[in-house]
Amino acid sequence: MSEDWLDAIKWDAQGLVPAIAQEHGTGTILMMAWMNPESLQLTRETGHAVYWSRSRGRLWHKGEESGHQQVVHAIRIDCDADVVLLDVEQKGGIACHTGRHNCFFRELDAQGRWVEVAPVLKDPQAIYGKA
């Protein structure tokens, strides 16, 4: 199988590209993470989201600890080929490590304060077994 499709992507100096996970069916943006060529290839091969974790310095199979995997329905790139969009089915309904449905739960209000606008669906300690 040809790897030419990976060459179409504009990887940054670290060999990464931002990846946005969007909920299949609703269009809700769930999260943003990073991908390298290997993680994108594995995502395509397995049908499950695999990212590059900058903090861990390794591949990160979404849901490997929490069980909240992302089943990939489609992989797209933007017009400049420098952002990947994954159309995913979020297993367990929780994409964020904070126990929320998505990672974008803070909204800037009229007074210039960040306000939490989405509830915690499950305590992260119950998900990960640690604080």
From TrEMBL:
Zn(2+) binds at C79, C96, C103. GO terms for molecular function: magnesium ion binding; phosphoribosyl-AMP cyclohydrolase activity; phosphoribosyl-ATP diphosphatase activity; zinc ion binding. Keywords: Amino-acid biosynthesis, Cytoplasm, Histidine biosynthesis, Hydrolase, Magnesium, Metal-binding, Zinc. Its EC number is 3.5.4.19. It is found in: Cytoplasm. Transmembrane segments: none annotated. Mg(2+) binds at D78, D80, D82. InterPro entries: PRA-CH (IPR026660), PRib_AMP_CycHydrolase_dom (IPR002496), PRib_AMP_CycHydrolase_sf (IPR038019). It comes from the Bacteria. Its cofactor is Zn(2+); Mg(2+). One of its GO terms (cellular component) is cytoplasm. Pathway: Amino-acid biosynthesis; L-histidine biosynthesis; L-histidine from 5-phospho-alpha-D-ribose 1-diphosphate: step 3/9; Amino-acid biosynthesis; L-histidine biosynthesis; L-histidine from 5-phospho-alpha-D-ribose 1-diphosphate: step 2/9. Residues 31-105 form the Phosphoribosyl-AMP cyclohydrolase domain. It catalyses: 1-(5-phospho-beta-D-ribosyl)-ATP + H2O = 1-(5-phospho-beta-D-ribosyl)-5'-AMP + diphosphate + H(+); 1-(5-phospho-beta-D-ribosyl)-5'-AMP + H2O = 1-(5-phospho-beta-D-ribosyl)-5-[(5-phospho-beta-D-ribosylamino)methylideneamino]imidazole-4-carboxamide. One of its GO terms (biological process) is L-histidine biosynthetic process. Binds 1 zinc ion per subunit. Binds 1 Mg(2+) ion per subunit. Pfam families: PRA-CH. Coiled coil: none annotated. Homodimer. Catalyzes the hydrolysis of the adenine ring of phosphoribosyl-AMP. In the C-terminal section; belongs to the PRA-PH family. Belongs to the PRA-CH family. This is Phosphoribosyl-AMP cyclohydrolase. It comes from Thiocapsa roseopersicina. The lineage of its organism: Bacteria, Pseudomonadati, Pseudomonadota, Gammaproteobacteria, Chromatiales.
